[in-house]
Every structure is written in C-alpha cells, then in structure tokens.
Amino acid sequence: MELAYIPSPSQGVWHIGPLPIRAYALCIILGIAAALWLTRRRWIKLGGNPDDVVDITLWAVPFGIVGGRLYHVITDPELYFKSGEQPIRALYIWDGGLGIWGAVALGALGAWIGCRRRGVPLAAFADALAPGLILAQAIGRWGNYFNQELYGDPTTLPWGLKITYTDANGDIAHGVFQPTFLYESLWDLACVALLLYADRRWNFHSGRLFALYVACYTAGRGWIESLRTDHANHFFGLRLNDWTSLICFVVAVGYLILSRNRPEPENRLGRSRLAPEGPADDATIGDSSVAFTKDVPDTPDTEPNAEPDPEPDAEPAEADGRSADQPEKHTPRV
C-alpha cells in the first residue's frame, strides 16, 4: 500500500458544447505564450524591435508543431501503420506525441525564414530564444500529466504518480509510477535559471547560449529517458531518444569549445535595431551618421561700407602740405 503519491487528474478534456478543450493543448499554448513573453523581454533588452519576436514566432511555431509530430510518427511508425492500427491516428496530435528534436529542427527552419524576412541574424535570435524555449518545454510537459502518459517504472517513492488509465489500444495501466514528466519539467526550469545566469555572467553570443541550452537539456533528458517505460525503438541497448540526446550533446559541447574565443559581432541584431524617435537631421549611411551643413560665405571682419585699409607701405601726407610723392628734405644738424 502506498503511503503517499501524486494523484492523476480526473480528466484531461472539458467540453464547451461540441467543442473539446484539451489540457494537453492548453499546456502547449501556455508554454508558447511564456516563451514569447520571455523572448520578447530579452530581445528588447538587447535593443531589438519587439515586433520581430511576434513575426518570427508566427513562422517558427507552426513549423515546430509539424516537425515535432513528424519526428514522433517517423520514429514510432508501428504505432500507426502496422497491421491492425489506424493510420489516421497519426494526425491526432491531441493524443500526445510531439518529439522535441523534430520540433526544434523544423522550428529552426521556420525561425530562419522569419529572421530573413525581418533582417535578423538567426544566431542572435536563437540566443534570445533559448531560455524561453526550455521554459515552454517545462510547461508543456504537464500535458503528459493530464494525458497520463510517459511515466516510468513502478515506485514506492512518496512522489510517485498514481495512474489509472486505459489507452486507445485498450491497455490498462494501474499503479504508482516514476513521474518522469515532473522530473523533466523541474530539470527544464533549472536549465532556464542556468541559461539566464550564464548569459548575464558571460554575455553569450553567436548562438553559444542556444548551444548551452542544447547541452543542458540533453544531459537531463539522457537520464530521464532511462526511467521511462513507454514504447520506444532500441538500438544497441539504448532507446532512440538516448542516442539523439547523446549526438546533440556532443555537437553542442563541441560548438561551445570551438567558438569560445569568437569575438562578439559589432552589430548582433543586424538591421533589427529600434528606430530613433523623432525626425532625423542627419543623413545615415550604414551605421554611421554624417551631418551636412549649408555652405555660407565667409563674413568680412569690417562693416559692408567701411573704407579699405591703406596699403601698408603708403605714408600719409606731411602736415606742411608736402605731397606724399615729394622726396623727404633732410635738415642738417648743427
């Protein structure tokens, strides 16, 4: 008999008339909203245009959802296409099944398209996005809780997750299991704190903060994956997601090492800087501002009608009436 456990939700779907409201979808939407909020704040702090974040997100999110579903279906095709299964269920995204690897890969393609349209370097946006992305993952994992899926081995731990669930295949799960969704959610939140601290402490740039996100997340996903008992294809004794985590971890750490001495770009945000307020009096060329002034003729030192100064060698006439052209008379001294 279990002394303590985490109870499962009594339901994961609510209906408003004929419209089903699914907790899984709500968790994903809430995660996207949190990522958008945090990324927008970080982008503005860097001096970027806040409209960039919304426009790029409109490209990245649909690509990411499609990529996440494709990864899940491609890596577990027997769940949908073997004899006796219903292939149409491959489209039932509300039943769960989004692979983060596919979501990040195809989402990056959507973000690249959005960045090109906005004139934003992808590496700069990826660094701004990294903490928000893993925050979205932390929130989205609670969708697995409402779907009562992706749990681990049976356990007697006081934080075990009680499951009473019949899946679409008619398989019944009943008991207390390792709450792997909770482990991953807490790990992701710790990664958010680490990324924010590292960026503040060392000012990561050139995609290095995104690489740190990949390294941190995959390090945790590796041990959490080993606790899960849901269906997965195995290769050489490891689950497929373990191999994916290992490869991504090595690539991310390798990039961090190779780029450790890379100087910060002079303009990290490309053409996405905030426009200055008010009309500009200067002509801007590239990043330099050149001020133009109207040519004004030199002003003479004298008044307009003043007589010109006499020639320096000219001598005034003598007081006795002698002309200035007459030679000077010398009086002998006595």
Question: Please, could you describe this protein's structure?
Answer:
With 334 residues, the protein is mainly alpha-helical. The protein has one domain. The chain contains nine helices and eight strands. It has helices spanning 23-45, 50-75, 78-81, 100-118, 122-140, 142-147, 180-202, 208-225, 240-258; strands at 13-16, 19-22, 161-166, 172-177, 234-235, 238-239, 283-285, 288-290. The strands form four sheets. It has a two-stranded antiparallel sheet. Strands 3-4 form a two-stranded antiparallel sheet. Strands 5-6 form a two-stranded antiparallel sheet. A hairpin with a 5-residue loop joins strand 3 and strand 4 (172-177). Helix 1 (23-45) packs antiparallel against helix 5 (122-140). It starts with 12 loop residues before the first strand and ends in a 44-residue tail after the last strand. Mean pLDDT is 81; it is low at 275-296, 317-321 and 329-334. Catalyzes the transfer of the diacylglyceryl group from phosphatidylglycerol to the sulfhydryl group of the N-terminal cysteine of a prolipoprotein, the first step in the formation of mature lipoproteins. Residues 319-334 have a biased composition (Basic and acidic residues). InterPro entries: Lgt. It is a multi-pass membrane protein. Residues 264-334 are annotated as: Disordered.
- What is the N-to-C order of secondary-structure elements (H for helix, E for strand)? EEHHHHHHEEHHEEHEE
- Terminal CA distance reads 147 Å
Radius of gyration, whole Å: 37 Å
The dominant shape is: globular
How would a textbook summarize the main sheet? 2 strands, antiparallel
What is the spatial order of strands in the main beta sheet? 1-2
**Structural class, judged by helices and strands?**
mainly alpha
Global mean pLDDT: 81
Helix content: 40-55%
Number of helices: 9
Count of domain modules: 1
Uncertain runs are: 275-296, 317-321, 329-334
Count all strands and give the number.
8
Strand content: 5-15%
Pathway: Protein modification; lipoprotein biosynthesis (diacylglyceryl transfer)
Keywords: Cell membrane, Membrane, Transferase, Transmembrane, Transmembrane helix
GO molecular function: phosphatidylglycerol-prolipoprotein diacylglyceryl transferase activity
Pfam families: LGT
